Amino acid sequence: MTQLSDDFDCPAAVAEGAYWLPFSANRRMKANPAPRIIARAKGPFYYTEAGEELFDTLSGLWCTPLGHGHPRIVEALKTQAETLDYCTAFQVTNPVTVRLAGRIAERAPQGLNHVFFANSGSESVDTALKIALGYHRLRGEGNRFRMIGREKGYHGVGFGGMSVGGIVPNRKMFASGMIPGVDHMRHTHDPAHMAFSRGQPTWGADRADDLERLVALHDASTIAAVIVEPMQGSSGVIVPPVGYLQRLREICTRHGILLIFDEVITGFGRMGANFAAERFGVTPDMIVFAKAITNGVVPMGGVIVSDEIYNTFMAGPPNAIEFCHGYTYSGHPLAAAVAHAVLDVMEEDAVLERVRALEPVLEEAVHALRGLNLVADIRNIGLAAAIDVAPVDGAPGARGLSIFEKGLESGLLLRCTGDTIAFGPPFISTPEQIHAMVDGVRRLIQAID
Ligand SMILES: Cc1ncc(COP(=O)(O)O)c(C=O)c1O
User: Fold this and answer.
1) Total structural domains in the chain?
2) Most buried among 115, 197, 240, 250, using CB within 10 Å?
3) Structural domain containing residue 238
C-alpha cells in the first residue's frame, strides 16, 4: 500500500478518532478496532489486517455482487483512467457515458428510456423527487407537491430521501429538517399474517389501499409522487405481498400520481432480473438505481425516467436548460467504464440465470433455521434474505450486535440492523458458500441462546 508508511498503526489511529465512521457505533469500534479493519478483498471474501478471511454476506452494502477485484472491472478502470479520467457533464459529454445510458435504458421496462446520472443512491432519490416536482409544474400542476413514502422505507440520507424514508432513528434527530408535505403509507410486514413466508407473502395486498386513504385526506391534486422500494432492503428484506405493487400502480395511475421505484438495492440482478419492476411485473414512472451498476467500485447512481416525463421537460425555449440540477460527477467516465464492464460480465456470464438458480439454495438454507429458539421470522426473495432474532427484553439490538461481533471471529462479515440479520450474498457465490454462511449464522444464534 503505497499511501501508507510501513509503521502505520491503523487500530491506534482509529482509536484516536480522526476518522468519524458513518452509520457506525464509533466508540464501540474504537474500543476494539482490530477485527474490523479490512485490508484487502478478493471474490466473495474480505481479509482483515491480521489476515482473517471474512465471507461478504451482504455483497458490501448490497453493492458488490460480482465480487471484489474482478479482473474485467480492474482493466476497464485502468484503461478509462488513461483515456478520459474526467469530463464535465454540463453542456458537453463523452461516448462512454452516452452509451451507458442507452445500455441501461435497454434493460429497463418498456417506456423508460432516459437516464439521469448521479453518484449515490441518496443523490438519485433526491433527483427523482425533484424530477417529480418539475414534471407536474411543467404540466401546470405545480400544486402537486406532496411526496408519499412508506414506513420502514430507506431512501438514503439527503433531506428529501430522509423525509420520505420511514426508519425512525434516521429521522428523529433531523425532524426539524424534513421537507414539507410528506406523508407515509404503512409498511407491509405483519408477522401475525406472514411470518416465515417463502418469497412473496400472500397476505397484505390491501395495504396499498393506504394510498387511497392519503388521497382522500390530502386530495390527489396535491400529491406529486409515491416512492417505494419494491423490496424494502435496509429494514430487513420486507418482500412485497402478491398484488401489492400492482395495486399501488393502479391507484397512482388513477390519480395522476407518479410512481417511483427505488431500486438502489434491487436493480441490476438482485431479484434475478434486471429490475424488480420486471420481476414483479409492474412498471413505475421512474426507477432509481445505484450500487450494483458499478459493482461498488466507483460510486454511481441515477434515475431512469419514462418518455412522458422526459418529453415534458424537453419542451420550452430550445436554448434553455430544461432541468437545473446535476452534479460535478454526474455520469463520471470512470464510473461509466466500470458500469460497462459490469453489464458485459452480467451478459457473458449469464449472471441473472445464476441468481435465479441460487435463489432456491438461499431460500432452503435460511428457512432451515426456522425452529431455532430465538428465530422470530425469516424472509427471502431473489438473492436476498433476512432473519429476525427475538430481542433481549429492554435491550433491542443487543443480540444483533453480539451476532455481528461474533461473526467477525468466525469468518463472516454480517449485516445486522437491530436484531435483524440481512443476507445479500455475491452473485458469484457457490451453493456451498451460501450453505456455509447460513450454517455459520445457525451456530452464532445457537451460541447466544
Ligand atoms: C433503497 C435505497 N435507496 C437509497 C439508498 C442510499 O444510497 P447511498 O448510500 O448510495 O446514498 C440506499 C442505500 O442503501 C438504499 O438501499
Assistant:
1) 2
2) 240
3) 74-348
